[in-house]
Amino acid sequence: MSIKTFEIPYFTGINQSGFENTLPSRFAIDAVNMDTEGGKLRVADGFYKYSALPVPDMGRIELLCCLKTPEGDVPVVMSGGKLFALSGGSWTHFYTAQRTSSNVTCDSAMVRIGSTDYLVIADGENQLIKFDGESVSPFGSEENCSDIPVSYLTMYRGRLFAAGDPENPDRLYYSVLPGSGRTVENWGYVEASPAVEGGHTDVGSIGGDPIVAIKALSNQLLIFKRHSLYRLIGDRPSNYTIEHIDADMLETKHTAISVYGDMLYFVTQEGLHYYNGVTVRPCPDMRCIKSIMARAELAKCRSVIAGGRLYFNYTSGMGDEMMVYDLEERKYMRRNGFEVSFLAVMNGKLIMINRNRILYEFGASSSYDGAPIEAYWKTPISDLGDKAAIKSPRMLYLRGSGSAIRIEVELDGSKSGYIALLRRNGELSVTEIPVFNEGRCLSLTFSNVNGGYFELEGGVELEMRLRRRTE
Fold first, then answer.
1. Contacts of 188 (CB under 8 A, 6+ apart)
2. How many Å apart are CA 184 and CA 177, to the nearest integer?
3. Of 346, 384, 430, 431, which has the fewest CB atoms closer than 10 Å, so is most exposed?
4. Where are the beta strands (DSSP E) in 9-89?
5. Which helix (H) or strand (E) segment is 280 a member of?
6. Is residue 447 exposed (0-12), middle (13-18) or buried (19+ Cβ within 10 Å)?
7. In the beta sheet, which residues pair with residue 230?
8. SS3 301
9. pLDDT in tens, 34-68
């Protein structure tokens, strides 16, 4: 009989890319509502009310965005064609659009017209509107060729680009270059100066492949179609070049695309992809969440980036979930236990609105607005490289702080659970937890108790005895 120590040196993220027996112990085969920043394992932060007042009306939430002002971001919501803004601590109704469909596609962009900053909103059914924080007015005019209903907006090299015209689904519109009395509300020709004129162009010629998103990087405009990807390069209409990048690409949607440091990420049914400046590639670690994505429904997916992390929501089974991808440490964590209707970023913080039409901010909260956070971390099942040996755990060593922690030791499908109380400053000392079980294949699960908080630092060690069948 010999002694062996099973060690988790630090904690990383979820990894479902291979057989559990081959995965390092620092990964979780499944985890919920945990955070592993810096290699620690702790219960993730919750959220609290950004505003206690629900968005008025009962229409479908079509858009959550913000008007950027010198005093900070002003939350703006489109609900059933009605525009509301959180002004003076209460929701104010500013505008109502006519709706012929209950499933419109909305988008927004910040623009400057003259000396005023506006939030421009598209819904694919009506002429664009612009909001300055005090009133809503129509954007553009028939005279300036800019009264066309579109669904997608972005700013690129000082011009406003638009797409999603239901009458011309392959068409890309662009405004004049602002200056000398010109504004982005003009999408027409400027005979005196063709270099600054507006206009439009059709992208691709295959039917059934409409434009579904447009996103700008510093030196190119990406045009997502349903099954392909194009890019526009150049700084004026005379040298605009549209190049076909990829065909047979997995479908995405404009709300599932985010830009981080001039790198574009987008969510598909297989997971995260990125654009590297030349072509589209799957993220190298995309398969780390392959089992989760296999059962994910992306119809209501929103992707945003805040604080160096990419967040996207999806539906799994009957519930909402949110994936968190750390763009610096390259790891995934899963969040659930709450409803998500829309995600956005305001003042650099992650903001969410749920089906109760309440606006929440994620941050330093130990609950989901008063509801407990149920969190756990499950290690891969492993024979520890010694299939013949029968493992008999004796003592678990960890350094942690918080309230209580529940540890489940699973060996050959047989589970035994233990609850240990952690000291307030327990990370400065080692906690010993006696454990008992026996088998050849081992897995550990760490979870909180009654929604409480805990944090483990310095990894975990499990001391066990090994014996052969003949011993």
1. 143, 144, 145, 146, 176, 197, 198, 199
2. 7
3. 430
4. 30-32, 34-35, 41-43, 47-51, 61-69, 72-79, 82-87
5. strand 280-282
6. buried
7. 223, 244
8. coil
9. 999 999 999 999 999 999 999 998 999 999 999 99
